[in-house]
Structures are given as structure tokens and as C-alpha cells.
């Protein structure tokens, strides 16, 4: 029966398959006493919540008959009935407004088998001495071919749904193991995706985070961690700990014996624990399909209805983030990429002196340029998988950017055309007559040189650290050293960048930002037909000598493209 609390409060949906140990009398007493609860107080609070639910016209009544889940919400909300009310309202509202995470939990589809074969999410059977539940997340394979970040997130939500029905603990300890996690995996976790995930997990189920331990973290993992910490309030962000090869401090907080054998523990292997959890999730199939129907009816909500925009501005445990500036990140990336496709007529044509200075920097002269360009054209003709688009001017610019190394130009050109084939969301769709261009260009101006001499960051808000960390994680150390963050004193900035070459807003003489950007927008629009034509020029992987290159290779930077070398 679901009418009982505490030790007997495993919901009526629970199956006979146990993946976590039922709470002992000692655990029950310890958890309840932490928040001033006893059996009588629990029953009283649960009755109050049931009465409140019945009176809410916009909320479903399914939990009125589920004392066990209500008790667990009371524990998670630290014995605050008002917090439980807000949390339950948010839980049902998320199910209405974020269906891409909170719905589609039919694990009989191929998606569940596919994602669960490369990813694991394991709440361990035993609690810590402090009555915390330890959950381990990680990848069993570095292959990103079948990786779908939303499917991964759904599995996490399904397990949280089971735990709110069957688990009994004080708080949570998460272990993020980055072994087998590639840059390709990390790249899927954009800020909007992360915010939705954290909102649904921490907000929807009121997770009480005791600690988050990060293990086996490569440099690019710090980007993802920075994004998570940025989205969390400082109190929760301070509970994120990154461990190196010495795990002494980790084991001081998480007893070895409750961990899998891969971490020196005694609780079985990762595979054994994950197999049990997969069976548990599958046993909830009908429950999940039934619970999908239980969501808020915003047409009946007293007062203001709540939509996804309201939710994604929800603060709670999260920092406020204006997501509309992040959802079109691919559009911003396209604008950066446009710059490299265009000749430079928007800026002053190079003088003879400038030409001589640039070419002499790399030991070039007019004869050497002609010879190198001819070599490159001959090489392109011999590549069966590359288009035969040969333009002396563009080839010369590639030569300059590659510091007079024809071999580097060859590698760069191969990568250029291969990226056009494998990353179409950025490298195609360059129709500047579309609404995306007008919208995006109205809020941004850009212009990067491919060979980074320096990158200066001005007027940086707090979240700029996250973006800079993202850049540094994929650049070589030589390039990361060229990134400068300036405060209010711009003396050092002006020592490197002459004022006269800057817009008036920066004390310069080169016109306003708006005037310069308006010229660039017109230039981009003038390239409309060229962009559409160049979209056709990409690698034909069926004709590549040797192994073909796909998206997984590129995003994992494997094979020939393992290292991102932009210098």
C-alpha cells in the first residue's frame, strides 16, 4: 500500500527488482531527525499536501494516492511544506513545458538500447555513513556515433523518477567520470541544453547536492564543468571538486567499499550495477508512460500561466541566463566563418609596403608565391575526394596563414572541405537573405583573423570566464597565452593595438562600430550567390584514399585531425 510512510513507503509502482537497499530503521530515524521529523509529523505533512493538491485546478491528482513520493519530497525540501508545494508545481509544469526531456520515455524504442550501451548512470546500492546516495555517471565507449545528449539526459530523468518513488536518503553525491569522454561528447552540452537539464534534474526533483566529484578530467572537460558551475548558484558551485591522479581526498569523502571495483570498491563492477539498473528502468515502462500524462494544465492555472520562457528564466538554484542569446549559437558561428570566405575589400586594400612586409615575414616573394600556388593547384588536381575549386588569390592567403608551408596548406584545405561535408549546421545554410542573418547581425559584429596574434577581451561580465575557458580548452598552449582579459584600465591594450585603427567607441579614428558593421553586413550580402555556390564544394568521402573521415572523427579530433592546430 502507498498509504504507509517511512520504511513501508516504497510506492505502489515499485517492482521486486531491488537496485538500492531498502532503508533500515536506523536510516529512517537519522534522515527524519535531520529535519525534525517523526512518523506522526510525516503523516500530518503528507495529509496537508494531499489536501493542497486536491485544491489545485491546474495540477494532476495522481500523487494524492502516493504517500511515499510525498514523503520523499518532504525530505528533499527539508520538512518545508511550502517548498514541497513549489517543487511539485515546478515538477508538473516542467512536464508540460519541456517535453523534449520529460516525455518520450518509452524505452522499448531503439534509442534506449543505443544510449545505454555507451553511457551509464548508476546510483549505488549502499548509502554513505551520512545517508547520502552516491551516483556515478560516465561513458563505457569513446565512440560518439550513436551518442544523443537528449537521450542521455532522459535516462538520468528516468532514474530520478524511480528514486523519488523508492529511494530514501539525505542528499546526493555525484561522481562524473570523464574516462572515455571525448571533446565530441562535451561539444553536445551547450549552455541551453545544460540549463534545461539542470532545471529538470535539480529543480524538478529537488536534488540536494552534497558534492560533485570529477574524475579523469581531460583539459576540455573543464569547459563543461565551468558551464555547470556558471549555471549553479555559488553555494552549489562550490561543492564541485576536481580530482587529479591522487584520489586521497576523494576517498575521504566517499567510502571505497560502497563503490564499484573499478574504483577500488567492493560493490560489484560498473557493468553489473548498470545491468541491474537497466532492468529496473525497463520494469518501469508502463509507469513512465502513465506518468507522462500527469502534467500541469496551464489553461486552468490561477493567475499567470507558465511557459518554457518563464521556466528557463527560473532562478532557484540557478544563475539567471538570457537563453535567447545562446539558442542561435550556430548563427553566430556562421558569422565568424563568413569572414574567412571573403576577400578583404571592406577594409583598405594592402599597400605595396604591407604586401612586402607580410610576405617577407615568411620568406616569400612574388616568384615563391607563384611557385607555391602552382604546386598547390597541381596537388588539388590529384586529390580524388576534393573539389577542383582553384583560386590563386585564396591559395595565396592560405599560404600566408600557414606560414609558407605548402604541406600545412594541404592539410588545412583537406580539413576545410571535410568540415564542409561533416558539419553542415555551421558550414552550410549561408543564405544571407534568410531571417536568421538579419536577426543575428543586428546584435553582433565580428572579425577574426585566422592567425591569432592576440585576443583581447574587454568589458567582460562574469560568464565570460566560461567562454574563455571553452576557447582555451581547444587551443594549444601557445595560443591560449595570447588571450588577454583587460579590466577598466586599457593602457596595456592600447600598447598593443594603436588607437587610430579602432572605432570611435574605443577612442579611435576609424568610424563607429555601427558604421563598420553596416559595411560588413553589406559585404556579406554581396557574397550571397558566392556562398551558395561554395556550399557545393566539399569533400567526397567515398573517394578519399584510405579511411574516410566522418563527423565522429572530426568532433573527437581523431586520426589526422586529432589535434586542433590553428596556428
Automatic annotation (TrEMBL):
Residues 175-271, 366-514 form the CRAL-TRIO domain. CDD domains: SEC14. It comes from the Eukaryota. One of its GO terms (cellular component) is membrane. One of its GO terms (molecular function) is phosphatidylinositol bisphosphate binding. InterPro entries: CRAL-TRIO_dom (IPR001251), CRAL-TRIO_dom_sf (IPR036865), CRAL/TRIO_N_dom_sf (IPR036273). SUPFAM superfamilies: CRAL/TRIO domain, CRAL/TRIO N-terminal domain. It holds the Pfam family CRAL_TRIO. This is CRAL-TRIO domain-containing protein. It comes from Coptotermes formosanus. The lineage of its organism: Eukaryota, Metazoa, Ecdysozoa, Arthropoda, Hexapoda.
Amino acid at each position: 500500500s502507498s498509504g504507509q510512510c517511512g520504511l513501508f513507503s516504497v510506492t505502489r509502482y515499485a517492482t521486486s527488482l531491488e537496485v538500492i537497499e531498502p532503508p533500515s530503521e536506523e536510516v529512517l530515524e537519522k534522515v527524519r531527525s535531520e529535519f525534525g521529523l517523526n512518523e506522526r509529523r510525516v503523516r500530518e505533512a503528507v495529509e496537508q499536501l494531499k489536501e493542497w493538491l486536491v485544491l489545485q485546478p491546474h495540477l494532476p491528482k495522481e500523487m494524492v494516492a502516493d504517500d511515499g513520493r510525498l514523503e520523499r519530497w518532504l525530505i528533499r525540501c527539508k520538512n518545508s511544506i511550502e517548498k514541497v508545494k513549489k517543487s511539485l508545481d515546478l515538477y508538473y509544469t516542467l512536464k508540460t513545458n519541456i517535453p523534449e526531456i520529460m516525455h518520450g520515455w518509452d524505452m522499448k524504442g531503439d534509442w534506449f538500447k543505443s544510449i545505454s550501451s555507451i553511457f551509464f548512470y548508476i546510483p549505488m546500492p549502499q548509502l554513505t555513513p551520512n545517508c547520502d546516495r552516491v551516483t556515478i555517471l560516465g561513458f563505457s565507449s569513446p565512440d560518439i556515433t550513436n551518442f544523443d545528449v537528449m537521450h542521455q539526459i532522459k535516462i538520468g530523468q528516468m532514474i530520478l523518477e524511480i528514486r523519488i518513488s523508492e529511494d530514501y536518503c539525505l542528499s546526493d553525491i555525484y561522481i562524473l567520470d570523464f574516462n572515455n569522454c571525448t571533446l565530441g561528447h562535451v561539444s553536445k552540452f551547450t549552455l541551453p541544453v545544460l540549463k534545461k537539464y539542470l532545471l529538470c534534474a535539480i529543480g524538478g526533483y529537488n536534488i540536494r547536492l552534497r558534492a560533485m566529484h570529477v574524475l579523469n578530467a581531460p583539459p576540455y572537460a573543464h569547459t563543461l564543468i565551468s558551464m555547470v558551475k556558471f549555471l549553479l548558484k555559488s553555494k552549489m558551485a562550490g561543492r564541485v571538486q576536481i580530482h587529479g591522479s591522487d584520489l586521497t581526498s576523494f576517498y575521504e569523502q566517499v567510502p571505497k567499499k560502497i563503490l564499484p571495483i573499478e574504483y577500488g570498491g567492493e560493490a560489484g563492477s560498473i557493468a553489473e550495477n548498470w545491468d541491474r539498473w537497466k532492468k529496473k528502468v525497463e520494469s518501469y515502462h508502463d509507469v513512465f508512460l502513465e506518468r507522462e500524462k500527469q502534467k500541469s494544465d496551464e489553461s486552468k492555472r490561477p493567475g499567470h500561466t507558465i511557459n518554457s520562457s518563464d521556466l528557463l528564466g527560473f532562478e532557484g538554484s540557478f544563475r539567471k541566463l538570457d537563453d535567447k542569446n545562446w539558442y542561435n549559437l550556430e548563427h553566430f558561428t556562421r558569422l565568424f566563418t563568413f569572414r574567412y570566405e571573403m576577400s578583404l575589400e571592406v577594409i583598405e586594400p594592402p599597400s605595396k609596403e604591407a604586401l612586402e612586409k607580410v610576405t617577407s615575414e615568411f620568406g616569400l616573394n612574388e616568384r615563391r608565391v607563384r611557385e607555391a600556388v602552382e604546386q598547390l593547384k597541381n596537388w588539388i588536381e590529384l586529390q580524388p575526394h576534393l573539389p577542383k575549386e582553384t583560386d590563386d588569390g585564396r591559395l595565396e592567403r592560405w599560404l600566408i596563414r600557414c606560414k609558407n608551408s605548402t604541406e600545412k596548406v594541404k592539410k588545412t584545405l583537406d580539413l576545410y572541405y571535410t568540415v564542409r561535408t561533416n558539419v553542415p549546421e555551421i558550414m552550410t545554410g549561408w543564405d544571407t537573405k534568410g531571417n536568421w542573418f538579419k536577426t543575428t547581425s543586428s546584435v553582433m559584429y565580428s572579425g577574426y583573423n585566422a592567425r591569432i596574434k592576440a585576443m583581447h577581451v574587454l568589458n567582460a561580465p562574469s560568464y565570460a570566464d566560461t567562454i574563455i575557458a571553452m576557447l582555451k580548452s581547444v587551443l594549444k598552449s601557445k595560443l591560449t597565452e595570447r588571450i588577454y582579459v583587460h579590466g577598466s584600465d586599457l593602457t596595456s591594450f592600447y600598447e598593443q593595438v594603436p588607437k587610430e585603427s579602432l572605432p570611435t567607441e574605443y577612442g579611435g579614428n576609424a568610424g563607429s562600430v555601427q558604421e563598420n558593421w553596416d559595411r560588413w553586413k553589406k559585404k556579406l550580402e554581396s557574397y550571397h550567390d558566392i556562398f551558395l555556390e561554395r556550399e557545393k564544394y566539399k569533400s567526397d568521402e567515398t573517394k578519399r584514399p584510405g579511411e574516410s573521415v566522418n563527423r565522429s572523427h572530426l568532433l573527437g579530433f581523431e586520426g589526422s585531425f586529432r589535434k586542433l592546430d590553428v596556428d
